[in-house]
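pinging the channel bc i need a second pair of eyes. not urgent but kinda urgent?? the chain im working w is below, pasted from the shared doc
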Amino acid sequence: MTCLLALIFLVSGAMVIRQQLQYQQIASDSAEAARIAGLPERMDLRPKSEAPIQTSAPENLHPLPEEAAALATVDLAALKEVNGDVLGWISIPGTELSYPLLQSGDNQYYLRRSWRGYSNDGGAIFMESTNQPDLSDFHTIIYGHRMLNDTMFGTLKYFRQPDFWKEHPCIYIVTADGLYEYDIFSAYEAGVRSLLYRLDLVESNLQGEFLQFCQSSSTIDTGVIPTEGDQILTLSTCTGSGHAKRWVVQAVLWDFWPAEELSLGQ
């Protein structure tokens, strides 16, 4: 019995050490990416100016928010020199979520690889392989692991709390085309076989049913109501309780600043 307990202790200790090393590697990779991109490691939280809620927002409704100002100068060219799969950068200001955004032809590729392409169980933040890289689809899905120390998509679990959403209502993505601002409208747990993960929504004319599913499933009431003419962004991560369900945070495109109005490294 003593030997068995000792073995359990050693295995548990090894797992803890491995997890800590994994977290350290994620932090190191993230810091390096931010340095190369010319960004702070953590985007400062600045209050978003009040604006009436509406959908199908036209371009340039309001000036670039202070919270997203750093993204206007991100050096995408430098990131792409390291890895050509880099599409841009994704950030929720005031949280740990600030990373390069990647896409490959295989959704499995970045599950266990860092943004540089090295082996790492923490993976990277990556877009659904079938989505258009210019974010022009009706529904774009972005995946990331739910790390226990809140890195990667670990932050998303806090959107169960209305107060957290109020403090962090926007998702920003910058690509070679420009800077996109998305307003969060729902957060909930969904089955991996649910309508949420259908990749033929437009072809099957399921946009209305999809939006109804998203809003009726949400655990928070944001007052933001997207329409079939909007573009929807879904951030998808695991729940920590099995493989049958995922935790998602969804947002609708609110505004866009084209690259020529920014100082992006191309």
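so The longest strand covers residues 178-191. and The chain is about 25% helix and 25% strand. — does that match what u expected or am i reading it wrong
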